[in-house]
Amino acid sequence: MGGRPLPVPDLHDVISSARVVSIPMRVKFRGVLEREALLVEGPVGWGEFCPFLEYDDVESAPWLACALEAAWHGFPAPVRTSIPVNATVPAVEPGRVEMVLTRFGRVGAVKIKVAERGQSLADDVARVAEVRRLLPDAGIKLDANGGWSTDEALAAVDAMARFDLQYVEQPVADIPGLRTVRLEVQRRGYGVLVAADESVRRQEDPLLVAREDAADLLVIKAPPLGGVRRALEIIAQAGLPAVVSSALDTSVGIRAGVALAAALPELPYACGLATVSLMAGDVTQSSLMPDAGSLPVRDVAVSRTRLERFAAAPERTRWWLERLRRTHAVLSGVRMGS
Ligand SMILES: O=C(O)CCC(=O)C1=CC=C[C@@H](O)[C@@H]1C(=O)O
Ligand SMILES: [Mg+2]
After folding, report:
1. Which residues of the sequence carry a binding annotation for Mg(2+) (predicted)?
2. Cystine design at 231: which of 166, 225, 309, 319 (Cβ 3.0–4.6 Å)?
């Protein structure tokens, strides 16, 4: 698809600068309490390779392409200087919502995790109600990570539309289900939109959801799509509004998301790029954290001291370097951006 593939640097050059970090989370997020990432330094800066641990090498290959783009090629020209961002509230109990929100400072929008395994609709309603109570004017979006059936998704929208929701992200797992939920929510007249996330980033064809008219907007993460340039192409071809979101990365990975959001011709919603606020550390002294609801579009200077402080245990470092070797082999076979 699209533009000229970027050359993949030699494994030796990639591995020689690789550093593995393990950063504790302040709040458990998607089951993760320690976020591990491998950072590489190339001729133009640092890149972050942090596919989730359960991903295989083929699924991880575009994540490496994204890291190598950042470190060896840099980013396309920005069209804006700051990016509006949302706070992200994990599936915590209502009593912890205020503490989580405090970490983000003043924001104009909040994304709330719902449909967590082991929790009920009543738990979701209580969490969303608490956010609405604390922030009466904020834009609210929900993210179910595909955790509902279509009936459950419709019941959830019935129960929570009164909180004035902007959109529900990936209410159900599959594309036909997403389309059903989208059309039925539209028919019920709630004015709540349906966004696709996993149906773009974990789908062999990231454009299928758009072709099937199954979503009103796309939530886009640069790493699973193979980097900023490739993500820009996919968004342009999809022809739908896009919200750029993080992969729960350090400020180095967030920088790629910021570059993507900065290069998009339109940016109608706050982006999910404030997640460094959920972490208890970073690899830079000047983290990409929100100030008055926005992130600046700027580079990130990596601190050697912090790479040391958060260095992963030797066996985890070995595991990541092996993963890097295997993924590099996959990527060299398919070429970046192809
Ligand atoms: O979009 C946001 O507000 C923050 C990022 C975020 O929610 C996610 C980051 C990484 C993994 C995902 O489970 C999750 C998501 O599903 O969007
Ligand atoms: Mg999501």
Report:
1. 143, 169, 197
2. 225
Q: Tell me the pLDDT band of 337, cut-offs 50, 70 and 90.
A: very low
**C-alpha 144 – ligand 1 centre gap (Å):** 10
Q: Is 169 annotated as a binding residue?
A: yes
Whole-model pTM? 0.96
Q: What is the average per-residue pLDDT within 65-90?
A: 98
**Average pLDDT for the chain:** 96
Give yes or no for residue 211 CB within 6 A of ligand 1: no
**How far from each other are the two terminal CA atoms of the chain, in whole angstroms?**
6
Asked whether 282 lines ligand 1 (CB < 6 A), one says: no
Query: Is a pLDDT exceeding 50 seen at residue 226?
Result: yes
Which residue intervals of the chain bear CATH 3.20.20.120?
82-296
Domain(s) of CATH 3.30.390.10: residues in the chain? 11-75+304-334
| The predicted structure's pLDDT at residue 232 | 98
Protein fold of 82-296: TIM Barrel (3.20.20)
Residue 116, ligand 1, Cβ within 6 A? no
Ligand 1 atom closest to Cα of 30? 13
Domain 11-75+304-334 CATH class label? alpha beta
Task: Of 236, 227, 230, 226, give the one whose Cα is nearest residue 218.
Answer: 236
Nearest residue (by CA) to ligand 1, atom 9, is 247
Q: Is 28 a catalytic residue?
A: no
Tell me the ipTM for this assembly. 0.98
